[in-house]
Amino acid sequence: MSNASDETKSVRGSCHCQAVAYVLADVPSTGIACNCSICRRKGSVLAFFPPSKFTLETPRDALATYTFNKHVIQHHFCKTCGCAPFAEGRTPDGREMIAINLRCVEEFDLAGVEITEFDGASPR
Q1: How many domains, the chain?
Q2: Does 1 map to a domain?
Q3: CATH label of the domain that carries residue 46
Q4: Within a 10 A sphere around the Cβ of 38, how many other Cβ atoms?
Q5: If you write DSSP's letter for every residue of 6-57 in order, what string do you get?
Q6: Residue 42 is part of which domain span?
Q7: pLDDT 10s digits, 12-58
Q8: pTM reported for the whole predicted model
């Protein structure tokens, strides 16, 4: 399938069981494949957006949250199915951000996205 049309300018994402769902008021065109300990294990391909572009459609009580290391990113996952559709945190310069797992975006062609490898495993 192709990425969202120019008319929509938004995408919808969810966990596997649909207990966690969101709408993103943008169409991702790039992604990051990080090799840090959590992204590597989850197989995430991430795209980052300001919170103003993100609307959670389901109750927050469907989420469980995991933080580690510097605790600047809240890695959210579904309490029911375990999928991790998004995270919330801050950019290195302190701005709030949402990290969308592109593998959880519905009807989205990941092959049509430019993916950059990021070395998150190396010490900073």
Answers
A1: 1
A2: no
A3: 2.170.150.70
A4: 16
A5: TTT--EEEE-TTSSSEEEESS---EEEEE-SHHHHHHT--EEEE-GGGEEE-
A6: 11-118
A7: 999 999 999 999 999 999 999 999 888 899 999 999 999 999 999 99
A8: 0.87
